[in-house]
Amino acid sequence: QICNQHNAEAPNLEQVFHRMAQTEPNLDHDISWFLLPSYWAKMVVALISFICFANSYDGDFVFDDSEAIINNKDLRAETPLGDLWHHDFWGSKLSSNTSHKSYRPLTVLTFRINYLFAGGFYPVGFHVINIILHCTISVLMVDVFSILLGGLQFSSKGRRLNLAPKTSLLAALLFAVHPVHTECVAGIVGRADLLCALFFLLSFLGYCKAFRENKEGHNFSIFWVLVSVILGAVAMLCKEQGITILGLNAVFDALVINKLNVLELIQKLLRKDKSLENAGLLRKGLLFRITLLMSGGASILYIRWRIMGTGPPAFTEVDNPASFADSLFVRAINYNYYYSLNAWLLLCPWWLCFDWSMGCIPLIKSVSDWRIIALAALWFCLIGLICQALCSEDSHKRRILTLGLGFLIIPFLPASNLFFRVGFVIAERVIYLPSIGYCILFTYGFSLLSRQAKKKKILAVAVLGILLINVTRCALRSSQWRSEEQLFRSALSVCPLNAKVHYNVGKNLADKGNQTAAIKYYREAVRLNPKYVHAMNNLGNILKERNELQEAEELLSLAVQIQPDFAAAWMNLGIVQNSLRRFEEAEQSYWTAIKHRKKYPDCYYNLGRLYADLNRHIDALNAWRNATVLKPEHSLAWNNMIILLDNTGNLAQAEAVGREALGLIPNDHSLMFSLANVLGKSQKYKESEALFLKAIKANPNAASYHGNLAVLYHRWGNLDLAKKHYEVSLKLDPMAPGTKENYNLLRRKLEQLQKKGG
């Protein structure tokens, strides 16, 4: 559908574009840089962006990838696709009070497709898609920067002209190799930012297409304006920042299409000047398009708010300490300090960290804090740029500076704490889109310097050096994102005061079995943040395993005192109390954990173990049954049920439970072993033998498997096979209980048989 509205006092768009090309200075004229055909320029950008992050292709799942991908049930085929539209990014129901309300169903859908095509959680496919997305976005940036820096003009055939091929290439390269993008590309969870950026740019380019000249000579296409709104909605379904493109499209329309002078407009509004219509604000086309953008944006935000359900998410003080400060002055000062740090990451992205929370950036509580200088520097630069953007007599400078500031600031607004509290202090991933504005301002500044400089080639070499340094930094940072160990350790030098960094290093060491080193880092995390309940819980767990029960109990008791609804800590406290033989307290701790987390299979499992120790067999069986109902693949609970029923002589019931368990977990060798024991006692030797052999095939080095199979053959009368498996069992474990005695009995029996035969 094409809109055919004209204003008698406004020039048509063909005249505007023609005059723009004639009167506006060309940035390319001032710089000494490569001039490549459009196709080759895009190929160069794609290749260099690929080189920057190629070494992340075979990295592991790291940091938030565990929760967003591995533990996210929305990726699995058994989860209905419709659930994606009612769950948050992490797989929790949006209606839940614990949900982070991050609504990104299209991003989760791409994860699910990755999972299905790979046939499981294999990170290579996830990483490759992220690299391809960044390369695609970087290529699109060539077109976007050619419009933002050179203006929008079409040929007589309706083909868009690139009026700034040199500067658009430079800006696209700056974007492609910026090290702050590493988190988005090398971290799989960063796909939300990549997909959002992709549709963000497509929305902008679609909006530009609305002004392509056509055969009828109409002003603009309503169709492409609506397409732009829809693509903005799609961007928001990938990540919340996507909605900001609608505001940027409106800014672009006013400044580039209608050549609005913002300062002149403000002055006329203040004077109530009757010539406002000549200023361009009341042109029918502009008002109509802005109305479409605003209506679309308002509708999208309303639907998003309705889907969110229970209001904004609830974050804790450790996530964003400044937002919990009582003083408005302290909040304002620290928010602005965070902005200055984000700006510094764009200017000098050398110190990068996967997490900037938990004491990494101590609060500014007084104006005597030297860090106030950073705020002053930020606002000095911003105010200077804004004044130039509003007051410069050069319309070209006004346009580029305003667009640069717009793309720098507007996409950052959702992360600014101005409209709602966010769950982080600084997040490098949220600078992905604002870096577009930085690249515009950097490139424009380079062109101004080149215009004044006598030796332009020296400046060009300096910029080329910056690009090479950034490529190197991207490659180094990508290698750090390949594994959690490298990623977490890289943060120790950047944020030594961040308790979460020490916690994650400790957790990584504990997962690898290095408990002694893990304890050191967990203790440091608790020292830095005495209320860090997750560090207390993990440290208590390790101390429990090392039989340091007294300190473990103290830590876990403190954790539940600080956070009374911390279900995992209550369960672990119950395990410690059980080990200390304080059974009543342990039972109470388990039930408190279940009270705070209704669906807690592991807690039911441990509760069952407590009841088994107390010979409360029916209660134990009920607890384990609850664990298997909540988690059908809970092998330990199934095994304990089979063993308890076996030990109490309920062989028929034990057999029924074993068959039920194997029906749900057919490849679990421990279940095969337990059921084989039951079948052997029931004299179902053939079936028992088959299960023993299957279990041994799955786990050939288990001495008990060979030993019990030998017992079966011994009972069955297959003495040679019994002798063989007794010997294998003793070879694997010479101290296996009972096996040596049974083997000696068998040998005596074989000797007796040989004597009788002789």
UniProtKB/TrEMBL annotation:
Where is the protein found, in the record's own terms?
Answer: Endoplasmic reticulum; Membrane
The UniProt entry lists membrane topology as: Multi-pass membrane protein
GO cellular component annotations of the record: endoplasmic reticulum; membrane
Pathway listed for it?
A: Protein modification; protein glycosylation
Does this entry carry the keyword Secreted? no
Q: Which InterPro entries match?
A: O-mannosyl-transferase_TMTC, TMTC_DUF1736, TPR-like_helical_dom_sf, TPR_rpt
Cite the PROSITE patterns for this sequence: TPR, TPR_REGION
Please give the start and end residues of each transmembrane region.
39-57, 131-151, 163-182, 188-208, 220-237, 243-266, 286-305, 372-391, 403-424, 430-449, 458-476
For this protein, the Enzyme Commission number is: 2.4.1.109
Q: Where are the TPR repeats?
A: 499-532, 533-566, 601-634, 703-736
- SUPFAM superfamilies found in the cross-reference section: TPR-like
Q: Which residues form the DUF1736 domain?
A: 311-383
Which Gene Ontology terms describe the biological processes this protein takes part in? endoplasmic reticulum unfolded protein response
Enzyme kind, highest EC tier: transferase
Keyword Electron transport appears in the UniProt entry? no
Q: Which UniProt keywords apply?
A: Endoplasmic reticulum, Membrane, Repeat, TPR repeat, Transferase, Transmembrane, Transmembrane helix
Q: Which family is this protein grouped under?
A: Belongs to the TMTC family.
Name assigned to this protein: dolichyl-phosphate-mannose--protein mannosyltransferase
Gene that encodes it: Tmtc4
